[in-house]
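Hi X.,

You mentioned you wanted examples for the new student's onboarding notes, showing what a folding record looks like when two proteins sit in one file. Here is a clean example. The first protein comes first, with its sequence line followed by its C-alpha coordinates.
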Amino acid sequence: MAESASITFLRSEGRRADQLRPVRFQNHIAPHAAGSTLVEWGSTRVICGVTIEESVPRWMKEQGVTGGWITAEYSMLPYSTLTRKPRDSSKGKVDGRSVEIQRLIGRAMRSALDLEKLGARTICVDCDVLQADGGTRTAAITGAFVALRLALKKLIAEGKLAADPIANSVAAVSVGIVNGIPLLDLCYTEDAAAQVDMNLVMTGSGEFIELQGTGEESTFSDDQLAAMLTLGRVGIRELLALQEAAVGK
Protein backbone atom coordinates (compact mmCIF):
# COMPACT_ATOMS: atom_id res chain seq x y z
CA MET A 1 0.00 0.00 0.00
CA ALA A 2 1.30 3.47 -0.86
CA GLU A 3 2.40 5.69 2.00
CA SER A 4 -0.39 8.24 1.42
CA ALA A 5 -2.98 5.48 1.52
CA SER A 6 -1.60 4.03 4.77
CA ILE A 7 -1.69 7.45 6.44
CA THR A 8 -5.40 7.86 5.63
CA PHE A 9 -6.23 4.30 6.69
CA LEU A 10 -8.63 4.45 9.66
CA ARG A 11 -8.30 1.93 12.45
CA SER A 12 -11.13 0.38 14.46
CA GLU A 13 -10.94 3.18 17.05
CA GLY A 14 -10.92 5.90 14.41
CA ARG A 15 -7.20 6.71 14.50
CA ARG A 16 -5.03 7.24 11.45
CA ALA A 17 -2.08 4.91 10.89
CA ASP A 18 0.30 7.65 12.09
CA GLN A 19 -1.72 8.77 15.13
CA LEU A 20 -1.02 8.15 18.81
CA ARG A 21 -3.75 7.26 21.24
CA PRO A 22 -4.55 10.16 23.62
CA VAL A 23 -1.73 10.57 26.18
CA ARG A 24 -2.11 12.40 29.49
CA PHE A 25 0.09 12.76 32.57
CA GLN A 26 -1.35 13.25 36.04
CA ASN A 27 1.59 14.30 38.19
CA HIS A 28 2.19 13.91 41.96
CA ILE A 29 -0.11 10.89 42.11
CA ALA A 30 2.03 9.36 44.90
CA PRO A 31 2.68 12.03 47.56
CA HIS A 32 5.50 10.15 49.31
CA ALA A 33 7.53 9.69 46.11
CA ALA A 34 10.15 12.25 45.11
CA GLY A 35 8.44 12.38 41.73
CA SER A 36 5.44 10.55 40.32
CA THR A 37 2.95 10.54 37.49
CA LEU A 38 0.04 8.49 36.25
CA VAL A 39 0.40 8.13 32.51
CA GLU A 40 -2.91 7.47 30.73
CA TRP A 41 -2.21 6.23 27.22
CA GLY A 42 -5.41 5.25 25.50
CA SER A 43 -6.84 2.62 27.85
CA THR A 44 -3.42 1.77 29.30
CA ARG A 45 -2.71 3.21 32.76
CA VAL A 46 0.70 3.10 34.47
CA ILE A 47 1.79 4.73 37.73
CA CYS A 48 5.46 5.74 37.66
CA GLY A 49 7.10 6.73 40.94
CA VAL A 50 10.66 7.71 41.83
CA THR A 51 12.33 7.39 45.22
CA ILE A 52 15.88 8.41 46.07
CA GLU A 53 18.39 6.71 48.36
CA GLU A 54 21.45 8.63 49.55
CA SER A 55 23.77 5.72 48.82
CA VAL A 56 24.92 3.58 45.90
CA PRO A 57 24.90 -0.20 45.36
CA ARG A 58 27.67 -2.16 47.04
CA TRP A 59 29.16 -3.23 43.71
CA MET A 60 29.85 0.43 42.85
CA LYS A 61 31.74 0.92 46.11
CA GLU A 62 33.70 -2.31 45.68
CA GLN A 63 34.68 -1.46 42.09
CA GLY A 64 35.40 2.19 42.80
CA VAL A 65 32.72 3.42 40.39
CA THR A 66 31.92 7.08 40.98
CA GLY A 67 28.62 8.91 40.49
CA GLY A 68 25.13 7.58 41.03
CA TRP A 69 22.90 4.79 39.76
CA ILE A 70 19.36 4.24 38.51
CA THR A 71 17.43 1.02 38.89
CA ALA A 72 13.86 0.14 37.98
CA GLU A 73 11.07 -2.29 38.84
CA TYR A 74 8.02 -3.07 36.70
CA SER A 75 4.91 -4.99 37.61
CA MET A 76 1.40 -5.57 36.36
CA LEU A 77 -1.20 -5.42 39.10
CA PRO A 78 -3.50 -8.46 39.36
CA TYR A 79 -6.52 -6.55 38.06
CA SER A 80 -4.69 -4.84 35.17
CA THR A 81 -5.75 -7.50 32.64
CA LEU A 82 -9.06 -9.14 31.72
CA THR A 83 -8.18 -12.24 33.74
CA ARG A 84 -6.43 -11.93 37.10
CA LYS A 85 -2.63 -11.91 36.86
CA PRO A 86 -1.04 -13.45 39.99
CA ARG A 87 1.54 -11.30 41.75
CA ASP A 88 5.17 -12.31 41.30
CA SER A 89 5.46 -12.59 45.09
CA SER A 90 2.89 -15.41 45.06
CA LYS A 91 5.01 -17.30 42.52
CA GLY A 92 8.25 -16.72 44.41
CA LYS A 93 10.04 -15.10 41.48
CA VAL A 94 9.74 -12.26 38.97
CA ASP A 95 8.61 -13.51 35.56
CA GLY A 96 10.94 -13.16 32.60
CA ARG A 97 8.88 -10.50 30.86
CA SER A 98 8.89 -8.24 33.92
CA VAL A 99 12.67 -8.67 34.31
CA GLU A 100 13.21 -7.75 30.66
CA ILE A 101 11.01 -4.65 30.89
CA GLN A 102 12.43 -3.33 34.16
CA ARG A 103 15.96 -3.71 32.83
CA LEU A 104 14.91 -1.79 29.73
CA ILE A 105 13.42 1.00 31.87
CA GLY A 106 16.61 1.22 33.90
CA ARG A 107 18.81 1.39 30.77
CA ALA A 108 16.57 4.06 29.27
CA MET A 109 16.67 6.26 32.38
CA ARG A 110 20.45 5.86 32.80
CA SER A 111 20.96 6.95 29.20
CA ALA A 112 19.14 10.20 30.02
CA LEU A 113 21.40 11.23 32.91
CA ASP A 114 24.96 12.26 33.58
CA LEU A 115 25.43 9.86 36.48
CA GLU A 116 28.48 11.75 37.74
CA LYS A 117 26.34 14.86 38.29
CA LEU A 118 23.82 12.73 40.17
CA GLY A 119 26.33 12.15 42.94
CA ALA A 120 26.56 9.14 45.22
CA ARG A 121 22.85 8.33 45.32
CA THR A 122 20.52 5.74 43.85
CA ILE A 123 17.30 6.56 42.02
CA CYS A 124 14.66 3.84 42.15
CA VAL A 125 11.97 3.92 39.47
CA ASP A 126 8.82 1.88 40.09
CA CYS A 127 6.31 1.35 37.29
CA ASP A 128 3.02 -0.35 38.15
CA VAL A 129 0.47 -1.15 35.47
CA LEU A 130 -3.10 -0.42 36.58
CA GLN A 131 -4.70 -1.26 33.25
CA ALA A 132 -3.15 -2.90 30.21
CA ASP A 133 -4.30 -2.30 26.65
CA GLY A 134 -1.03 -2.62 24.75
CA GLY A 135 2.15 -0.59 25.06
CA THR A 136 2.66 -0.94 28.80
CA ARG A 137 6.45 -0.93 28.49
CA THR A 138 6.48 2.15 26.26
CA ALA A 139 4.07 3.93 28.60
CA ALA A 140 6.24 2.94 31.58
CA ILE A 141 9.39 4.35 29.98
CA THR A 142 7.70 7.56 28.82
CA GLY A 143 6.03 8.10 32.19
CA ALA A 144 9.17 7.15 34.12
CA PHE A 145 11.07 9.99 32.49
CA VAL A 146 8.41 12.49 33.60
CA ALA A 147 8.57 11.16 37.17
CA LEU A 148 12.38 11.29 37.03
CA ARG A 149 12.35 14.91 35.86
CA LEU A 150 9.99 15.86 38.69
CA ALA A 151 12.20 14.13 41.26
CA LEU A 152 15.34 15.86 40.01
CA LYS A 153 13.61 19.24 40.02
CA LYS A 154 12.81 18.60 43.68
CA LEU A 155 16.45 17.73 44.46
CA ILE A 156 17.64 20.91 42.76
CA ALA A 157 15.06 23.02 44.60
CA GLU A 158 16.24 21.53 47.90
CA GLY A 159 19.84 22.40 47.10
CA LYS A 160 20.94 18.76 46.97
CA LEU A 161 22.09 18.98 43.36
CA ALA A 162 24.42 21.69 42.09
CA ALA A 163 23.52 21.07 38.43
CA ASP A 164 20.76 19.34 36.52
CA PRO A 165 22.05 15.85 35.61
CA ILE A 166 19.61 15.42 32.73
CA ALA A 167 21.67 14.94 29.57
CA ASN A 168 18.81 14.07 27.24
CA SER A 169 15.10 13.37 27.15
CA VAL A 170 13.74 9.86 26.59
CA ALA A 171 10.47 8.46 25.26
CA ALA A 172 9.27 5.17 23.82
CA VAL A 173 6.56 4.07 21.42
CA SER A 174 5.40 0.93 19.66
CA VAL A 175 5.02 0.42 15.91
CA GLY A 176 4.01 -2.58 13.90
CA ILE A 177 2.54 -4.02 10.75
CA VAL A 178 -1.08 -5.16 10.87
CA ASN A 179 -2.74 -6.57 7.74
CA GLY A 180 0.27 -5.34 5.77
CA ILE A 181 -0.08 -1.74 6.97
CA PRO A 182 2.55 0.01 9.16
CA LEU A 183 0.87 1.45 12.27
CA LEU A 184 1.97 3.69 15.12
CA ASP A 185 1.16 2.88 18.76
CA LEU A 186 -0.57 -0.48 18.74
CA CYS A 187 -3.41 -1.17 21.14
CA TYR A 188 -3.87 -4.72 22.45
CA THR A 189 -6.08 -6.02 19.63
CA GLU A 190 -3.69 -4.61 17.02
CA ASP A 191 -0.68 -6.01 18.84
CA ALA A 192 -2.29 -9.46 18.99
CA ALA A 193 -2.97 -9.37 15.23
CA ALA A 194 0.37 -7.83 14.19
CA GLN A 195 2.61 -9.56 11.69
CA VAL A 196 5.48 -7.41 12.99
CA ASP A 197 5.78 -5.80 16.42
CA MET A 198 8.48 -3.28 17.37
CA ASN A 199 9.26 -0.99 20.30
CA LEU A 200 11.42 2.10 19.88
CA VAL A 201 13.18 3.87 22.73
CA MET A 202 14.74 7.16 21.62
CA THR A 203 16.34 10.31 22.94
CA GLY A 204 15.26 13.86 22.29
CA SER A 205 18.25 14.26 19.99
CA GLY A 206 16.90 11.52 17.74
CA GLU A 207 19.25 8.70 18.75
CA PHE A 208 18.16 5.17 19.51
CA ILE A 209 18.52 3.66 22.95
CA GLU A 210 16.89 0.39 22.01
CA LEU A 211 15.04 -1.26 19.14
CA GLN A 212 13.00 -4.38 19.86
CA GLY A 213 11.56 -5.74 16.63
CA THR A 214 10.09 -9.16 15.94
CA GLY A 215 8.36 -10.80 13.02
CA GLU A 216 5.41 -12.68 14.52
CA GLU A 217 5.34 -15.78 12.27
CA SER A 218 6.34 -13.40 9.50
CA THR A 219 9.27 -11.44 8.09
CA PHE A 220 9.63 -7.77 7.16
CA SER A 221 11.50 -5.94 4.45
CA ASP A 222 13.86 -2.95 4.46
CA ASP A 223 11.01 -0.77 3.19
CA GLN A 224 8.68 -1.92 5.95
CA LEU A 225 11.37 -1.32 8.57
CA ALA A 226 11.95 2.18 7.19
CA ALA A 227 8.20 2.89 7.28
CA MET A 228 7.96 1.76 10.92
CA LEU A 229 10.98 3.85 11.94
CA THR A 230 9.46 6.89 10.23
CA LEU A 231 6.20 6.40 12.14
CA GLY A 232 8.11 5.83 15.36
CA ARG A 233 10.02 9.10 15.04
CA VAL A 234 6.74 10.95 14.50
CA GLY A 235 5.35 9.44 17.68
CA ILE A 236 8.50 10.11 19.71
CA ARG A 237 8.48 13.79 18.76
CA GLU A 238 4.87 14.13 19.92
CA LEU A 239 5.61 12.30 23.18
CA LEU A 240 8.63 14.48 23.93
CA ALA A 241 6.47 17.58 23.54
CA LEU A 242 3.82 16.10 25.86
CA GLN A 243 6.48 15.26 28.45
CA GLU A 244 7.87 18.78 28.33
CA ALA A 245 4.41 20.25 28.81
CA ALA A 246 3.77 17.88 31.72
CA VAL A 247 6.95 18.80 33.56
CA GLY A 248 6.98 22.49 32.70
CA LYS A 249 10.07 24.36 31.61
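Then the second protein repeats the pattern, sequence line and then C-alpha coordinates:
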Amino acid sequence: MLPARLRSLLFAPAVRPDLVAKMPATGADLIAIDLEDATPVIAKADAHASLPDLMASVSGQIAVSVRVNDPTTEWFDDDVAALPDGLAAIVVPKVETVEGLDRVAAALAHHGRADVPVVAGIETALGVADARLTLAHPAVGAAYFGAEDFIADMGGVRTASNHEVHMARSQVALAARLADVPALDQVVADFRDGDRSRREGEEARAMGFGGKLCIHPSQVIIANDVFTPSPEDLDRAHRLLEAYERASAEGLAAIDFEGEMVDEPVARQARRLLSLAD
Protein backbone atom coordinates (compact mmCIF):
# COMPACT_ATOMS: atom_id res chain seq x y z
CA MET A 1 0.00 0.00 0.00
CA LEU A 2 1.26 3.45 -0.89
CA PRO A 3 1.97 5.93 1.92
CA ALA A 4 -0.85 8.33 2.78
CA ARG A 5 1.35 11.22 1.66
CA LEU A 6 3.82 11.07 -1.22
CA ARG A 7 6.10 14.11 -1.05
CA SER A 8 9.30 12.32 -1.99
CA LEU A 9 10.22 9.20 -3.94
CA LEU A 10 13.91 8.38 -3.66
CA PHE A 11 15.67 6.04 -6.11
CA ALA A 12 18.70 3.86 -5.49
CA PRO A 13 20.32 1.36 -7.89
CA ALA A 14 19.60 -2.28 -7.22
CA VAL A 15 23.34 -2.85 -7.75
CA ARG A 16 24.21 -0.63 -4.76
CA PRO A 17 23.18 -2.48 -1.59
CA ASP A 18 25.18 0.01 0.48
CA LEU A 19 22.99 2.88 -0.72
CA VAL A 20 19.76 0.90 -0.35
CA ALA A 21 20.58 0.09 3.27
CA LYS A 22 20.95 3.81 4.05
CA MET A 23 17.63 4.85 2.50
CA PRO A 24 15.44 4.51 5.63
CA ALA A 25 17.49 7.26 7.28
CA THR A 26 16.69 9.73 4.49
CA GLY A 27 13.10 10.38 5.57
CA ALA A 28 11.70 9.69 2.09
CA ASP A 29 8.01 8.86 1.97
CA LEU A 30 8.73 6.08 -0.54
CA ILE A 31 11.92 4.54 -1.87
CA ALA A 32 12.44 2.73 -5.16
CA ILE A 33 15.01 0.02 -5.73
CA ASP A 34 15.80 0.66 -9.38
CA LEU A 35 16.09 -2.20 -11.85
CA GLU A 36 15.74 0.14 -14.83
CA ASP A 37 18.09 3.02 -15.73
CA ALA A 38 20.37 2.68 -12.71
CA THR A 39 21.04 -1.04 -13.31
CA PRO A 40 23.20 -1.84 -16.35
CA VAL A 41 22.15 -4.60 -18.72
CA ILE A 42 24.96 -6.93 -17.68
CA ALA A 43 23.88 -6.66 -14.02
CA LYS A 44 20.11 -7.13 -14.35
CA ALA A 45 20.11 -10.88 -13.62
CA ASP A 46 22.28 -10.36 -10.52
CA ALA A 47 19.95 -7.55 -9.43
CA HIS A 48 16.98 -9.91 -9.56
CA ALA A 49 18.79 -12.38 -7.31
CA SER A 50 19.71 -9.64 -4.84
CA LEU A 51 16.19 -8.24 -4.36
CA PRO A 52 15.26 -10.40 -1.32
CA ASP A 53 18.38 -9.29 0.54
CA LEU A 54 17.87 -5.65 -0.44
CA MET A 55 14.28 -5.82 0.78
CA ALA A 56 15.35 -7.43 4.03
CA SER A 57 17.83 -4.61 4.67
CA VAL A 58 15.07 -1.98 4.72
CA SER A 59 11.89 -3.93 5.48
CA GLY A 60 9.75 -2.47 8.21
CA GLN A 61 11.71 0.79 8.26
CA ILE A 62 10.31 2.59 5.20
CA ALA A 63 7.80 2.11 2.38
CA VAL A 64 9.56 0.26 -0.45
CA SER A 65 8.88 -0.01 -4.16
CA VAL A 66 10.79 -1.49 -7.07
CA ARG A 67 11.13 0.22 -10.43
CA VAL A 68 11.00 -2.40 -13.16
CA ASN A 69 11.90 -2.08 -16.82
CA ASP A 70 9.02 -1.06 -19.03
CA PRO A 71 6.69 -3.80 -20.31
CA THR A 72 8.04 -3.66 -23.88
CA THR A 73 11.53 -4.75 -22.79
CA GLU A 74 12.96 -8.24 -22.55
CA TRP A 75 13.56 -7.82 -18.81
CA PHE A 76 10.05 -6.95 -17.67
CA ASP A 77 8.74 -10.46 -17.06
CA ASP A 78 11.80 -11.45 -15.05
CA ASP A 79 11.57 -8.19 -13.09
CA VAL A 80 8.02 -8.95 -12.00
CA ALA A 81 8.84 -12.58 -11.21
CA ALA A 82 11.64 -11.38 -8.93
CA LEU A 83 9.56 -8.90 -6.92
CA PRO A 84 9.90 -9.51 -3.17
CA ASP A 85 7.09 -9.63 -0.63
CA GLY A 86 6.05 -6.52 1.27
CA LEU A 87 6.22 -3.94 -1.51
CA ALA A 88 4.24 -0.72 -1.21
CA ALA A 89 4.20 -0.31 -5.00
CA ILE A 90 5.77 -1.20 -8.31
CA VAL A 91 7.13 1.70 -10.34
CA VAL A 92 6.56 1.23 -14.07
CA PRO A 93 8.43 3.60 -16.40
CA LYS A 94 7.35 4.86 -19.83
CA VAL A 95 3.66 4.07 -19.42
CA GLU A 96 1.94 4.87 -22.70
CA THR A 97 -1.20 2.79 -23.23
CA VAL A 98 -4.06 1.17 -21.37
CA GLU A 99 -3.08 -2.10 -23.03
CA GLY A 100 0.39 -1.81 -21.57
CA LEU A 101 -1.05 -1.35 -18.10
CA ASP A 102 -3.32 -4.34 -18.69
CA ARG A 103 -0.18 -6.36 -19.31
CA VAL A 104 1.38 -5.06 -16.11
CA ALA A 105 -1.75 -5.92 -14.11
CA ALA A 106 -1.88 -9.41 -15.63
CA ALA A 107 1.78 -10.04 -14.84
CA LEU A 108 1.34 -8.89 -11.25
CA ALA A 109 -1.71 -11.12 -10.83
CA HIS A 110 0.14 -14.09 -12.35
CA HIS A 111 2.86 -13.76 -9.72
CA GLY A 112 0.49 -13.19 -6.80
CA ARG A 113 1.04 -9.43 -6.67
CA ALA A 114 -2.38 -8.23 -7.82
CA ASP A 115 -2.74 -6.00 -4.76
CA VAL A 116 0.49 -4.05 -5.45
CA PRO A 117 -0.37 -0.59 -6.87
CA VAL A 118 1.43 0.84 -9.88
CA VAL A 119 3.29 4.15 -9.84
CA ALA A 120 2.99 5.04 -13.52
CA GLY A 121 5.85 6.91 -15.15
CA ILE A 122 4.62 9.34 -17.79
CA GLU A 123 7.76 10.21 -19.74
CA THR A 124 7.17 9.94 -23.49
CA ALA A 125 5.22 11.97 -26.03
CA LEU A 126 2.53 9.29 -26.30
CA GLY A 127 2.50 8.84 -22.54
CA VAL A 128 1.78 12.52 -21.98
CA ALA A 129 -0.79 12.68 -24.78
CA ASP A 130 -2.78 9.74 -23.40
CA ALA A 131 -2.16 10.28 -19.67
CA ARG A 132 -5.83 10.94 -18.97
CA LEU A 133 -6.65 7.42 -20.19
CA THR A 134 -3.76 5.56 -18.58
CA LEU A 135 -3.88 7.21 -15.17
CA ALA A 136 -7.54 6.24 -14.85
CA HIS A 137 -6.53 2.56 -15.07
CA PRO A 138 -7.54 0.68 -11.89
CA ALA A 139 -4.00 -0.62 -11.37
CA VAL A 140 -2.57 2.90 -11.03
CA GLY A 141 -2.10 4.25 -7.52
CA ALA A 142 0.17 7.21 -8.31
CA ALA A 143 2.05 8.79 -11.20
CA TYR A 144 5.17 10.76 -12.01
CA PHE A 145 6.37 12.95 -14.85
CA GLY A 146 9.82 12.16 -16.24
CA ALA A 147 11.22 15.21 -18.00
CA GLU A 148 14.53 13.79 -19.20
CA ASP A 149 13.02 10.85 -21.08
CA PHE A 150 10.20 13.02 -22.38
CA ILE A 151 12.56 15.55 -23.94
CA ALA A 152 14.74 12.76 -25.33
CA ASP A 153 11.64 11.27 -26.97
CA MET A 154 10.63 14.67 -28.32
CA GLY A 155 14.10 15.35 -29.72
CA GLY A 156 14.19 18.59 -27.76
CA VAL A 157 16.71 20.26 -25.50
CA ARG A 158 16.51 20.18 -21.70
CA THR A 159 16.97 23.58 -20.03
CA ALA A 160 17.00 24.89 -16.49
CA SER A 161 14.04 27.14 -17.32
CA ASN A 162 11.68 24.15 -17.75
CA HIS A 163 9.85 26.08 -20.49
CA GLU A 164 10.16 23.09 -22.81
CA VAL A 165 8.32 20.78 -20.39
CA HIS A 166 5.76 23.18 -18.95
CA MET A 167 2.89 21.91 -21.09
CA ALA A 168 3.74 18.27 -20.45
CA ARG A 169 4.10 18.77 -16.68
CA SER A 170 0.75 20.55 -16.60
CA GLN A 171 -0.92 17.81 -18.62
CA VAL A 172 0.32 15.08 -16.30
CA ALA A 173 -0.77 17.03 -13.22
CA LEU A 174 -4.20 17.53 -14.78
CA ALA A 175 -4.56 13.87 -15.77
CA ALA A 176 -3.59 12.76 -12.27
CA ARG A 177 -6.13 15.12 -10.73
CA LEU A 178 -8.90 13.77 -12.96
CA ALA A 179 -7.88 10.21 -12.07
CA ASP A 180 -7.65 11.18 -8.38
CA VAL A 181 -4.14 9.79 -7.96
CA PRO A 182 -1.14 11.62 -6.43
CA ALA A 183 1.43 12.93 -8.89
CA LEU A 184 5.18 13.40 -8.44
CA ASP A 185 7.17 15.95 -10.42
CA GLN A 186 10.34 15.44 -12.45
CA VAL A 187 13.76 14.81 -10.99
CA VAL A 188 16.47 17.48 -10.80
CA ALA A 189 19.48 15.73 -12.31
CA ASP A 190 21.99 18.08 -10.66
CA PHE A 191 21.42 16.96 -7.08
CA ARG A 192 23.97 19.49 -5.84
CA ASP A 193 21.74 22.37 -6.96
CA GLY A 194 19.52 22.76 -3.92
CA ASP A 195 18.18 26.10 -5.11
CA ARG A 196 16.87 24.53 -8.29
CA SER A 197 15.34 21.61 -6.38
CA ARG A 198 13.47 24.04 -4.16
CA ARG A 199 12.42 26.28 -7.03
CA GLU A 200 11.12 23.35 -9.07
CA GLY A 201 9.37 21.93 -6.02
CA GLU A 202 7.56 25.21 -5.43
CA GLU A 203 6.59 25.34 -9.12
CA ALA A 204 5.32 21.78 -8.94
CA ARG A 205 3.30 22.40 -5.80
CA ALA A 206 1.69 25.43 -7.45
CA MET A 207 0.80 23.24 -10.45
CA GLY A 208 -0.91 20.62 -8.29
CA PHE A 209 1.83 18.02 -7.86
CA GLY A 210 2.07 16.46 -4.43
CA GLY A 211 5.75 15.58 -4.41
CA LYS A 212 9.04 15.20 -6.25
CA LEU A 213 11.26 12.45 -7.60
CA CYS A 214 14.63 12.38 -5.83
CA ILE A 215 18.01 10.84 -6.59
CA HIS A 216 19.86 12.08 -3.50
CA PRO A 217 18.96 12.36 0.20
CA SER A 218 19.50 16.14 0.11
CA GLN A 219 16.64 16.39 -2.38
CA VAL A 220 14.36 14.44 -0.02
CA ILE A 221 14.82 17.04 2.70
CA ILE A 222 13.88 19.83 0.29
CA ALA A 223 10.89 17.96 -1.19
CA ASN A 224 9.46 17.06 2.19
CA ASP A 225 9.77 20.67 3.28
CA VAL A 226 8.26 22.18 0.12
CA PHE A 227 5.30 19.82 0.02
CA THR A 228 4.51 20.10 3.73
CA PRO A 229 2.37 23.15 4.63
CA SER A 230 4.19 25.50 6.99
CA PRO A 231 2.73 26.39 10.42
CA GLU A 232 2.12 29.90 9.09
CA ASP A 233 0.22 28.55 6.07
CA LEU A 234 -1.89 26.32 8.28
CA ASP A 235 -2.67 29.09 10.75
CA ARG A 236 -3.79 31.40 7.97
CA ALA A 237 -5.93 28.67 6.39
CA HIS A 238 -7.65 28.04 9.74
CA ARG A 239 -8.36 31.72 10.25
CA LEU A 240 -9.53 32.19 6.68
CA LEU A 241 -11.99 29.30 6.92
CA GLU A 242 -13.33 30.49 10.27
CA ALA A 243 -14.00 33.95 8.84
CA TYR A 244 -15.49 32.56 5.64
CA GLU A 245 -17.77 30.11 7.43
CA ARG A 246 -19.04 32.85 9.77
CA ALA A 247 -19.82 35.00 6.75
CA SER A 248 -21.49 32.11 4.93
CA ALA A 249 -23.76 31.50 7.93
CA GLU A 250 -24.81 35.15 7.59
CA GLY A 251 -25.64 34.69 3.91
CA LEU A 252 -22.46 36.17 2.40
CA ALA A 253 -20.79 34.37 -0.52
CA ALA A 254 -17.56 36.40 -0.51
CA ILE A 255 -15.55 38.29 2.10
CA ASP A 256 -12.49 40.49 2.42
CA PHE A 257 -9.92 38.55 4.43
CA GLU A 258 -6.70 40.42 5.14
CA GLY A 259 -6.98 42.25 1.84
CA GLU A 260 -7.85 39.16 -0.20
CA MET A 261 -11.23 38.42 -1.71
CA VAL A 262 -12.29 35.01 -0.43
CA ASP A 263 -15.07 32.97 -1.99
CA GLU A 264 -15.75 29.25 -2.24
CA PRO A 265 -12.84 28.37 -4.58
CA VAL A 266 -10.37 30.07 -2.25
CA ALA A 267 -11.96 28.38 0.75
CA ARG A 268 -11.64 25.05 -1.04
CA GLN A 269 -7.91 25.65 -1.48
CA ALA A 270 -7.61 26.32 2.25
CA ARG A 271 -9.46 23.10 3.07
CA ARG A 272 -7.12 21.14 0.81
CA LEU A 273 -4.10 22.71 2.51
CA LEU A 274 -5.38 21.57 5.88
CA SER A 275 -6.06 18.09 4.53
CA LEU A 276 -2.40 17.85 3.48
CA ALA A 277 -1.37 18.52 7.06
CA ASP A 278 -3.75 15.84 8.28
